[in-house]
Amino acid sequence: NPDGALTLFVDTFRVYSSDLQGNGLKAVIDEDEKSGNNYIAEIAHSQNNKFVYAYVPSTGNRDMQIKIANADGSGKKVLKTMATNVSIDNLYSFGGKIFYYTNSNSSGTYVNELRSMNEDGSNDIKENLPRPSMMAKNGSAYISTSTDYTSTTPSTSYYVARFKDGKWDEAGSFKLPKITDLVRAEAISTD
Q: What is the pLDDT of residues 29-40, one digit of tens each?
């Protein structure tokens, strides 16, 4: 979380919280349906002492859901239920918004979309931006990484998408020089 005092762990269908040393471990979300077919797929902290997660129930048509809860597990609610055959590949909290990357195979062809919505589930829109690899929590920027493994020496391209007042700052966004060979680590600062 933003103050660094809380860590979240996922165990198939439960979310646990603790401090950074592992003290005070407790279950804050329990989605156990006793079926063995349900699970939590993704989780991300938000800026407002909450967390969002992608969940697949075991009953019905098993449509994936985006849920939000307070850090202590209270106030849990479904923000969005995905259409059948749509899954969430990545889920991010970004400057008071939720970004998520979907993968759909409803027509036999894969269709991917980057979407965003407010933390209350409103204003769900498609974003015409590259897929994020890493995001700054404060909403200032994210990095999109693309690695080409087609040659014997892989190369990685980066795009830094900058934001001002919650909107994409195209003039402030830029590409980084291509890096040849494998990338071992990435980091992003708040500035």
A: 888 766 667 888
Nearest CA among 71, 39, 27 for reference residue 52: 71
Q: Are 38 and 56 in contact (CB under 8 A)?
A: yes
Would you give the end-to-end CA distance of the chain in angstroms? Answer: 18
pLDDT the model gives residue 74: 93
pTM given for the model: 0.76
Query: In whole angstroms, what separates CA 8 from the centre of its chain?
Result: 14
Q: Buried (b) or exposed (e) across 2-38, using 16+ Cβ within 10 A? A: eeeebbbeeeebebbbeeeeeeeeeebbebeeeeeeb
CA distances to 17, 20, 143 from 161, in Å: 31, 30, 6
